[in-house]
Specification:
single chain; 13-stranded antiparallel β-sheet; about 5% helix
């Protein structure tokens, strides 16, 4: 015979005006013991009813190692979630941004990240890369992180990953759905301050012997032998009245990564080799909980989560630039209890960016000249980086779900759910100021001079050239051909609507969930039908 034991601690009875008696369960711990000695408790991931995924709740989130406190960091124990092997390893421990993940082998940009019913997907050139190698190029083609916002896991009530048998409620994915629920403010008044620190002296590195020298003398962010990482945060929450509570959270994660920026290609007496790259992620979050009456509950929220990573182009002076992403998200969750059904509505607006801001000079490769372009240790002196690129995405979303209370028909029990969704999304790509890249360099003739104020020309005598280039020795130089990137702006917008319907049917010990989802957009003028079915 199976034995079940339940332990309930710290049960408080609260009398709230207008609501009668309410029972609040604090520190609830439930343990179930079965004859085969398997123990299941609330800190274990909860398997989806139809085996289509699992959910981790706050008690589990509180107990697992926090690391950088990213959403994807909580998913490492999920066997259906695969991580990019190069995104985070022993060699680049100074990084702080969320890692790209694949669910069921789908591309990392084919997941749907949702927070309190609102998608935070970043669809700005999702297949593109924002690695340093890609950002270093002059071409205006930089990608974005798959998540529009880097949220603090201290805010999470639960994280659900749906990788198969997904409800008709969800769309916009090929891999899976990552559904985050932000916790509500607690009764009373509570506060917390968090400070954490780690650096390379606290880290055990595992580096192949043949890569060890490159690792210890790294010039780019692929290898980070030194780093210092700090996380600070404050949380305040409580109820201002019997009916209205607030939760406020601010967190900041900062990482400094010292590197050997110039190796042997730049004269270290003119430009010190040691340079720092930095990573910064901030998170401001404010959520309200308002019990309007016995039937209506409103949860408004507003958040701002900017990130900024600073880089430089290796072996090039005056080449600093930053990659800025993240943005703003606001909305509300509105729940209404009818006598016969529950209506949940979500309305939200968010604005995300994924942009490059270059602080240095134009990208040029000069011939070495002792009196002017003299910082290179070889035949060339490199400088500058690519120009500024601004990319943004603005999204408005409204969705409504109606779940009818269970009812019986003969020997079957039915729970019917239906809903509708509307999304407007606009993407922007802009080069705000034109920039140029030096392409071909030529020699000034004898006694020729540069035009006054021309930064693409130098009269200083070129030296150190060999072979056919030796003819430039003793003469000045100028760029005879340049790549020109004109300023301009491109926008695209899409309106998309969806309707869905499903019925959860219980027949004795069996459960079936047939459903259908219909989507249409005005960008491709497609109408897509998605048929869903799950059973247990």
């Amino acid at each position: 015979m199976k034995k079940m034991r339940f332990i309930v601690g710290n049960i408080m009875l609260l009398s709230v005006s207008g609501y009668g008696e309410q029972i609040e369960l604090k520190d609830l711990n439930v343990t179930v013991k079965l004859d085969n000695n398997i123990t299941i408790n609330k800190t274990s991931p909860i398997e989806d009813k139809y085996l289509g995924g699992n959910k981790i709740k706050r008690e589990y989130i509180n107990k697992v190692p926090k690391g950088d406190g990213t959403l994807t960091g909580l998913l490492k124990t999920n066997p259906n979630v695969q991580f990019n092997t190069g995104s985070r390893s022993s060699s680049n421990a100074g990084e702080i941004e969320p890692e790209d993940i694949s669910i069921n082998g789908a591309p990392f940009w084919q997941n749907n990240y949702m927070v309190d019913g609102i998608s935070i997907n970043n669809d700005i050139n999702p297949a593109g890369s924002h690695s340093q190698d890609k950002l270093d190029t002059v071409f205006p083609d930089i990608g974005s992180t798959s998540q529009g916002m880097n949220l603090d896991t201290d805010l999470f009530e639960s994280v659900e990953v749906l990788d198969s048998s997904v409800s008709a409620k969800y769309g916009d994915f090929e891999g899976g759905v990552v559904n985050v629920k932000i916790r509500d403010p607690k009764k009373g008044f509570h506060g917390k301050i968090v400070v954490s620190h780690t650096d390379d002296s606290m880290t055990k590195f595992h580096i192949n012997e043949e890569d060890l020298e490159d690792f210890e003398n790294s010039i780019d962010s692929d290898y980070q032998a030194q780093f210092s990482k700090w996380k600070t945060g404050v949380t305040m929450e409580g109820f201002l009245t019997n009916d209205f509570g607030l939760l406020f959270n601010y967190s900041k994660t900062y990482s400094k990564i010292p590197l050997n920026g110039y190796t042997d290609y730049v004269d270290d007496t003119l430009y010190p080799s040691s340079k720092n790259q930095t990573r910064l992620s901030e998170n401001y979050y404010l959520k309200g909980l308002w019990y309007v009456n016995d039937r209506l509950t409103v949860r408004p929220f507003i958040s701002y989560a900017p990130t900024e990573n600073t880089y430089y182009r290796e072996n090039a002076v005056n080449s600093d630039y930053s990659y800025e992403s993240g943005g703003f998200n606001t909305g509300a969750e509105i729940d209404y209890e009818f006598d016969w059904a529950t209506l949940k509505q979500n309305i939200g607006f968010n604005s995300f960016s994924a942009s490059r801001d270059a602080d240095g000079s134009p990208m040029r490769s000069w011939k070495y000249s002792e009196d002017d372009k003299n910082w290179g240790t070889g035949k060339l002196s490199y400088e500058g980086s690519g120009g500024d690129i601004y990319q943004a995405q603005d999204t408005f979303t409204y969705n409504a779900d109606l779940t009818i209370d269970p009812f019986e028909v003969g020997f079957t029990k039915h729970t019917i759910s239906t809903g509708a969704e509307y999304t407007y999304k606009r993407g922007t790509f802009e080069i705000k100021e034109a920039w140029m890249q030096g392409s071909t360099i030529s020699s000034l003739g004898e006694d020729e001079e540069c035009p006054e104020g021309d930064e693409w020309c130098s009269e200083a005598a070129v030296s150190r050239q060999t072979g056919s280039s030796a003819s430039m020795n003793g003469y000045g130089q100028y760029f005879s051909r340049m790549n020109y990137y004109n300023k301009g702006k491109v926008e695209a917008a899409i309106n998309k609507g969806a309707l869905w319907l499903q019925d959860e049917i219980e027949i004795g010990r069996f459960s079936l969930r047939p459903g259908i989802r219909v989507e249409r957009d005005d960008y491709l003028d497609n109408t897509n039908f998605s048929y869903r079915f799950a059973g247990k």
